[in-house]
Amino acid sequence: MIGPLATGVIVLSLVIVVAAIVTAARNRAMGTVLLVALGVLEAALLVQAGFVIAGMVGGEGPDETATLIGYLAGTLVIPPAAAFLGLAERSRWGAIVIAVGGFAVCVMVGRLLQVWQGTA
């Protein structure tokens, strides 16, 4: 796992959280900007998953493989689910769903980084 990539994913997810909260505060539905941001976040998470899988195949990684795979799979599922639910709810609550999803990804990537480094 690459630390700077994980940091970039965390920053991107926090930017999505702030943008979604601003959208909800303005009483608007989720727009194209949030949808594209979730797509970029998902692409970054897929790149990160590729590096994690390659590292595990190469013999790197933590002793807690099941925990690592669980967090990795969870982070990959959240952005598409948040996008689907955000598009389905055409009120300000759709943007709130995006904010919650972005914050969940932020926390899970941080935890994934801790598990990878063996500090948790």
UniProtKB/TrEMBL annotation:
Lineage of producing organism: Bacteria, Bacillati, Actinomycetota, Actinomycetes, Streptosporangiales
Keywords, in A-Z order: Membrane, Transmembrane, Transmembrane helix
Protein name (database record): Integral membrane protein
Bilayer-spanning residue ranges: 6-25, 32-56, 68-88, 95-116
Entry annotated with the keyword Transmembrane: yes
